[in-house]
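In the current project phase, the collection of sequences with tokenised folds has grown. One resulting record follows, to show the layout:
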Amino acid sequence: MALNLRKAVSEFLREKAEEKFTAREIATEILKRYPQECQEKKARSTARVIPIISDADLVQQLVAEIGAQRTLIQDKTPEIKTTESRPRKYYFSAKSDAAEVESAEDESPKQGAANQSYSEHSLYPKLAEFLWYELNIYAKRIDEKRSKNSHGSGGNRWLFPDLVGLEDLSKDWHVEIKHAVQEVSERKTRLWSFEVKKFINRSNVREVYFQAVSNSSWAHFGYLVVSEIQGAETIKELRLLSGLHGIGVIELDIESPTDSQILIPARQKNDIDWNVANRLAEENADFLIYIKLLRQFYQTGEHRLGDWDIPKETE
């Protein structure tokens, strides 16, 4: 009997609802569940230019076929969804897009619930690690709870980013160049702004993107940072929005932060909006500290690592 790959994938994921699996993990499970069909598939491959010799070859072939049939599998079973990370993960969920977002944002412990293994706050040090080791950026957490909220309820909505960053452009300059730049008041830094989210899909992509647009308006670079993106249409929308508004997208690898990647580069703004920066500094104690650290750097040309949210082993 020929292996019905679409049916096999669908049945496995349905049994493991809300759990996420790579194509290789699914292929390995199919090999265990359908040994006779898989061996027949291997035997029929002898006429191919590159026949399937071993079980490892068969798993690799199944991985390729799962990827090739992804659209067909989802058309036949719309509850099967995929993340757009690498490696892509497949899962079965009967939840609506909006319900998935609500589940991701609900950080109260629920046994078996998706996206409950980590909180949004746990992503901040992981992002700081990526920024430090891969982009040479000094990161600083901005805690919205340290705000005055002098504009009343909702007055500071979408005003504060989750993290801010300082890029030292003079890091590798000759000391005489540093002094010369100091005298002529040329720029030695670039300022970065980051809005962090655990999960986005079609239902919340525009909301979270425009949140990043709003709270990054003061910086040279603004980024939306996401640990999980669901659906190719979401990526397509992010690229469209980025082309219009210039906010970039970073996919954060929570298992190995230094393997995170910039999916969509941000468009640089040449000037800081100091009026917006002033509003943030007046409202939030953490942002005021960030501005003081910026001033101190321009005065001394040095950073104290302990002032920044960088990996502890580098301090």
